[in-house]
Design brief:
Elements lengths: L7 H16 L4 H10 L11 H4 L46 H10 L8 H10 L1 H11 L5 H12 L8 H6 L8 H11 L18 E2 L15 H4 L8 E2 L21 H9 L23 H12 L10
Antiparallel strand pairs: 1-2
Amino acid sequence: MIRALSGFGALFLLVTAFEYREQGPQTSEDLGRLLFEDPILSSDQSISCASCHLPAFAFADTSAVSLGVGGQKGTRNTPAITNMSARSAFFWDGRAGTLEQQVVQPIENPVEMNLPLPIALERLRQNARYRGFFQTIYGRQPDTLTLADALASFVRTLETGNTPFDRWMRGNETAMSESAVRGRQIFMKKGKCFDCHFSPDFTGDEFRNIGLFDGKTRQDAGRFAITKDSADLGKFKVPGLRNVAVTAPYFHDGSFRTLREVIDYYDQPDQFVPHGLNRDSLLAKPLGLTEQDKQDLEAFMHALTDDRFRRE
């Protein structure tokens, strides 16, 4: 069964279930949402996409790595999937170039849903409800293209832009606290955050090495496993920062539990990983952030949370 959810996540699923029980999905986005929540796409039908991408937490997970079928541990932290429409690379290592390529890979991944795509498609074809849904929306039975399109179409609905920061940018000077406004200046200059997080979604879709690879205790080589280019050793995709305050834990391995720990790391990475290999030159020296700088920067991070995910 789907992992228990609370708050926004539970309401999201209840409303969805009621809508589809009444009339069935009417669009590819609706169908994608139904598939996203349905454990039919896992080998033992125990988990769904929503089991790891929790709606209440900006569609991220709350554990360092997610559990797949049979309780198998994943190898990397589950990233949030909000604000994916403008992305040019997916997964921490960028192995997918389109959202359609990305959404089907967890289904087949042995430590995630562990279901070969041909079997997944046959399940859907043997299911009278899904057979009818695909026929109504796509005019044909489920296949790789329509399954990928449905899931990707749903993910593209998860855009968020209703944040204190966005209101502040539109001229509402009281939308962000004074601390968050100061934090934005730290973000832009002293903290060097903007050098990597520079688009409207606060990611440049680049791959950077922030020093978490040392070839010994930290051996995930990241992008290098895809390109085999030594320049990519330890590089990972720069994540977007919208809703970052609700997507802990952080980094590709989920090893940092709080935003403050992340900020402390960037300020002095050598204090955490003394011999990071191929670390980006932006982090060659300590940033020299003061305690006030760190508090302000964290306040700005919280101001990037969409209203649908905000909590007291």
